[in-house]
Amino acid sequence: MSANVSTFLLGIAGLGLLVGMVTGVRAPRCWLGSVLAGALCALGASVCTLVTGQVWEWEWAVAVGGQVVHLQLDALSALFLALLSVVGGVGTLYARQYWTDREHPRSAPAGRVWWCVLLLGLGLVLLVANGLHFLMAWELFAIAGYFLVTLDRRSPAVREAGWLYLAASHLATVCLFAFFGLWAARTGSWELGPVRERVELAPLFWLALVGFGVKAGVFPLHVWLPAAHANAPSHVSAMLSGVTLKIGVYGLARFSGWLPVPESAGWVVAVLGAVSAVLGVAFALGQHDLKRLLAYHSVENIGIILLGLGIGMVAAGQGEAFWGRLALAGALLHVWNHGLFKSLLFLGAGSVAHATGTREMSRLGGLWRRMPWTAGLFGLGAAAISALPPLNGFVSEWLLFSGLMEAALTRGAVSWLAIPSVILLGMTGAMAVACFVKVCGVVFLGSPRSPLAAGAHECGGWMRGAMLVLAAACVAVGLMPTVFWGAVAEAVAVWQPGWTGDGAPASLAAVGRMHVALVVLSGLGAGLLAWRMHRHGIRRAVTWDCGYALPTPRMQYTAGSFAAILTQWFAWILRPRRVEQRPEGPFPRRARWETHTPETVLEFVVEPIGRLVLRAALALRQLQHGRVQAYVGYLVAGLLGLGLLVWGIARQGWQPCF
Fold first, then answer.
1. Strand, helix or coil for residue 596
2. CA dihedral 20, 24, 27, 30 (to 10 degrees)
3. Is pLDDT of 43 > 90?
4. Nearest CA to 467 among 359, 372, 559?
5. How far is it, in rounded angstroms, from Cα 359 to Cα 345?
6. Contact between residue 286 and residue 319 where contact means Cβ atoms under 8 Å apart
7. Full-prediction pTM beyond 0.85?
8. 178: which residues sit within 8 A by CB, 6+ positions away?
9. Cα(315)–Cα(445) distance, integer angstroms
10. Across the strands, what pairs with 178?
11. Residue ranges of the domains in the chain?
């Protein structure tokens, strides 16, 4: 019965996206209704799978690319599909008012079509059970993402970000093509499924780690991420950060569960996660662009997720179900939590940019008076990403901390990984709090630093409603973590079939009760304060001005000065650039002090390598001299090389997979 329901719901979801592609250009209201209906149906199918634990499968006799279409939905893919449905739905609501035909007559219609293509491609990646079709769906959503990132392609920065995104996406595609091609060659089929007994497939994990790691934004493979997330429209940024990064995580989780993995794989993933978490938040502290700062926090949170996944892989290799299950559950729940609060933050940043026309924090300030809804919802997202109770970020990091602490108590080799991970995770959380104190203080508090901020206005109802849905979800997970535990536990059991339990950990229930008590006490305190203010009134007075009777906006902390001490700790990798003009004379006319944090990996690693490759390519152009005899020689040499390759493959006993 549930299989028929899932078939119907997923069919309606696909049909809704197809209708959205057709109506997106000329009928935005029809587009809105069809996409929302599709998102709700996909969410219903995901919930059905997560509740029942049953695996849904569907095959179509028509061959695509010579392969029969085979779709499959289990608890692990359903967890990610539910996130796609929620973020895709609220992003659709937000875009209705944020990227309108009136303000963007050329790009808005195309943007609606590519939005549907992106959702369809992402959904197919989560559903297909065939390597060739996986690559097709992967390429589909990568191309759709490029056109969405470059919707405002009049800006050179947007075009540059789009090309960088496209180049990184195709680097990932090349690695995944090699991964699935070798899978098919070794197994004799493009069909995907558990092959844990095929030990010879273990080295393929390294290809998967690079391919999916690029898409996930793992440090140092994240070079495309800051520019793409900063320059894309904000509802696209929310989708990129909230969902598409998680598709990389999904690939790592899926194939580390299906494949035998090298013994060191879990250690490598955990170390990459810890490095990404710490350096991601360090780079975020050095940013002055609001959306670029949020983009680096995506690197941080992907690191937290990979840390949990890596610890889970180590636990699976050592047969340690208890702490491995906690760490992996924390990672998978953080997939959901990060998707919720990071989408909320990007939509809030979009509301700020939409109202002021700038993302530069040094030109903002005082927005809480003009944009109270945006300020409050952004503050809630900031508290959630900082893992503060009683919100959802605290719950997933609590589970991860619990798994790490239990691993440290084993006093085995894994404790040498778990103990530093606990320290680094705690340091990451503290730096995240400092970073968002900076953001909220500079952007929303104080006085407006420019006429743009002084003339800001609150966002409209559609944009506000989308943010309210995400904020409510953040609160719901924080107050009722045991309700969501069942879905996460089902996904963990799919990843490692032996890891099942009787119910939610006792500590998780205690966290939920503590959060409810904290909300009740906070509500009582706020009510008491409101009553006293109503009874005694409010008196306003000038604060202590330190001798400055007429303070100006320039006397406020800037984004750079607020985080200067913390960023100095990481100057060895941030490489901050200073622009300094000292005051001269007793009455200086001008003084200037600015700091900028470059894209260190891109500018000091990727670009120099690119220049070397370009020089080598220019040198090879000398082979194109127009002599037919030489070209025939090149052709013969190529055929000989191809023949030797086929001969070597034949000697290995590999069979074609077609």
1. strand
2. 20
3. yes
4. 372
5. 13
6. no
7. yes
8. 207
9. 46
10. none
11. 265-526+556-562, 575-583+590-623, 628-658
496: closest CA among 271, 277, 328? 328
Buried-exposed string 124-145: b where 16+ CB fall within 10 A, e elsewhere: bbbbbbbbbbbbbbbbbbbbbb
In this structure, the dihedral spanned by the alpha carbons of residues 219, 223, 228 and 231, taken in order and rounded to 10 degrees, is 110
Residue with tokens 């996944």: 309
Distance CA 565, CA 569 (A): 7
Using N-to-C axis directions, what is the helix angle for 372-385 and 321-356, rounded to 10°?
160
Q: Which two tokens stand for residue 477?
A: 């997970």
Strand intervals (E) in 262-402: none
Side chain identity at 127, as an amino acid letter?
L
DSSP annotation string for 602-657: IIIIIHHHHHHHHHHHHHHGGG-S--HHHHHHHHHHHHHHHHHHHHHHHHHT----
Strands 67-73 and 56-64: antiparallel
CB 243 within 8 A of CB 123: no
CB count, 10 Å around CB of 198?
A: 14
For residue 287, which amino acid is it?
A: Q
Tell me the two tokens of residue 334: 């953080």
Q: Mark 549-584 as b/e (b = at least 16 C-beta within 10 Å).
A: eeeeeeebebbbebbeebbeebeeebebeeeeeeee
Among 266, 255, 251, smallest CA distance to 187 is for 255
Query: Do 303 and 51 contact (CB within 8 A), yes or no?
Result: no
Nearest to 329 by CA among 477, 209, 486: 486
d(CA 476, CA 191): 38
Tell which residue, 215, 207, 190, has the closest CA to residue 129: 190
Q: How far apart are CA 252 and CA 514, in angstroms?
A: 34
What is the amino acid identity at position 107?
A: S
Calpha distance 258→252 (Å, rounded):
10
pLDDT band (50, 70, 90) for residue 218: very high
pLDDT per position as a tens digit, 76-91:
999 999 999 999 999 9
Compute and round to an integer the Cα radius of gyration of the chain.
26
* Burial class, 300, CB count within 10 angstroms (exposed 0-12 / middle 13-18 / buried 19+): buried
How far is Cα 238 from Cα 217, in angstroms, rounded to an integer? Answer: 15
CA-closest candidate to residue 192, choices 85, 67, 65: 67
Cβ atoms of 46 and 75 within 8 Å: the answer is no
- How far apart are the C-alpha atoms of 459 and 466, rounded to whole Å? 11
Nearest-angstrom CA–CA distance, 179 and 208: 6
Distance CA 79, CA 86 (A): 11
CA distance 639 to 356: 61
- Reported as a single tens digit per residue, the pLDDT across 127-169 is 999 999 999 999 999 999 999 999 988 888 899 999 999 999 9
d(CA 575, CA 599): 9
Question: Averaged over 336-343, what is the pLDDT?
Answer: 94
| N-term to C-term CA, the chain | 35
Segment (H or E) for 544: none
DSSP 8-state secondary structure symbol assigned to residue 289: B
Judge if the upstream peptide bond of residue 505 is cis by omega within 30 degrees of 0.
no
